[in-house]
Amino acid sequence: MTFTDAIAELLYGEQRRLVDAFEDYDGGASFRREPWRRDDLGSGTVCTLEGGRVFERAGVNVSSVSGAQAPPAITAANPDLVGKPFRATGISMVLHPLNPHAPSFHANFRFFETGRTWWFGGGLDLTPAYGYEEDAVHFHRTLREWCARHRLGRYPEWKATCDEYFTIKHRKEMRGLGGVFFDRLGGQEGDDFAEHRSLVADGLASVLTAYLPILDRRRDLPYGDRQRRWQLLRRGRYAEFNLVYDRGTLFGLQTRGNIEAILISMPPLAAWGYDVRPEPGSPEEDVRRFLRPHDWAGAEVRGPVEVSS
Amino acid sequence: MTFTDAIAELLYGEQRRLVDAFEDYDGGASFRREPWRRDDLGSGTVCTLEGGRVFERAGVNVSSVSGAQAPPAITAANPDLVGKPFRATGISMVLHPLNPHAPSFHANFRFFETGRTWWFGGGLDLTPAYGYEEDAVHFHRTLREWCARHRLGRYPEWKATCDEYFTIKHRKEMRGLGGVFFDRLGGQEGDDFAEHRSLVADGLASVLTAYLPILDRRRDLPYGDRQRRWQLLRRGRYAEFNLVYDRGTLFGLQTRGNIEAILISMPPLAAWGYDVRPEPGSPEEDVRRFLRPHDWAGAEVRGPVEVSS
């Protein structure tokens, strides 16, 4: 079994577990679970739920692709890989709740192998339409704790990477309140595959603990047209980020991947308005302070937590 | 008066005329007309209408920008311009009608000047959610006639350029049923500025004759939830094209232009669904045949129409 196969096995197992858990949690709609295979590209399983009680749209995808040449989305940041064959496997999930008070959640983990080199990338992040400090703190603390359980974990660094990565540059604002994000973890002589795998497995195990307590608090809050409209406008920003900047999306579009699977990250419904300016002091204006880098996990975090393995 | 100033004068005048005409035609809502100026960038006037009787959203923008270095969106196709200062002025309009039977319309014309070189680009295209042959034929014939009035006009070539340009490559389908599109017209020693200007002025004069007769036929057709849903899904494709491929949008985002002005091209509301497959034989499926290159103007068009000026 190659490294890629071992990670694919982990990811398909986590996909089943998470899809079952989200379906139970929703209690209204079921996931479609569709395996796909294309000889020229690879294979995967797309799991989607639409029109649920909690989730307006949810998607959890696993795919494994390979190619004779690493695509531009990879080689732009890794010019040494131009023209090299590659294998990649990844899991990606996006959940867009119906209630405007409940934030959208995104996570992905991916593994890339070329020749004798391999590395992991991934992260988790949260995108609210309305800001709630306790949600931001819970989310970031859960991620910090995950990182603290692993010698490889680097919460402050990965948080900063996430803040920067999930920035809508033309808006000068973050897509949401961040989370953690890392890329090209591994790839050095002597790196321990099992240790890296364990970090990622534990990251996937943290998905539900990071997200569900927040949904518990928000899923049934009352809302009306004003809140729904605001949610749709914020989702427009989400769509902007995904289509203009997101590396995973661009990788998928460039490799002419399974387009429907790649674009499950898109919001089910999104709006654009001209120069919309929320009233000063309104909750709609308040969310802006969540859309810039902030130490949500707490000021006591001063550096990477080193835990011997 | 520089060439750029002369074109800007033309475009601002056409903006006033078109905004007045669209507002009259709508009969329900008025345009906001907002001049803007940014010392580091340039200036412009944004005209937007939202929530009208005919138009859910309409925008007609004129802007003039300059910079010390041509941005990547320009130099990608014109590597000789890397590092050169430039001036650019352009008009861009996008109209998204409320009625799902009425197509969205887009046109833009732009003028680019660097050193002693100048050229024009632009075009007009139509994006229906439902296909009507008579609309497609009327639209393309109007554009063909415009081209036929000018020695510089190249309907078949510009139509083919438009078909190719407005293709959503990852979907292997066109954004709409095309129109005409040209780029870098001019730029050669001996090119006649006045003749080029006249072509563009006449293109702008063709906007209403190309579009309003189609709206007359579609604006009041009955529709329900099914048609609205389909319209929103098709608008999702529109958003995909604009954010992933459209050169004007990317130019604007890269130059950190007036973001609200640039993104008035976005649909007011758009939807994404997973693997939506319209019923065979339905009107929703039928529109697919409009989303690939087709000689709508009629088979008698065999080559460029040469009219002596």
What's this model, at a glance?
Two copies of one chain form a homodimer. Chain A is built from ten helices and ten strands.
The interface involving the most residues is between:
A-B, 32 and 32 residues
Instruction: Give me the oligomer status.
Output: homodimer
pLDDT averaged over residues of chain A: 92
Helix % of chain A is 25-40%
Shape annotation of chain A: globular
Poorly predicted tracts of residues of chain A:
299-309
| Tally of alpha and pi helices of chain A | 10
Largest sheet of chain A: 7 strands, antiparallel
The ordered H/E elements of chain A are HEEEHEEEHHEEEHHHHHEH
Task: State which percent range the strand residues of chain A make up.
Answer: 25-35%
Radius of gyration of chain A: 19 Å
Structural class of chain A: alpha+beta
Distance between the termini of chain A: 25 Å
Q: How many strands of chain A?
A: 10
Neighbour order of strands in the largest sheet of chain A: 1-2-3-4-5-6-9
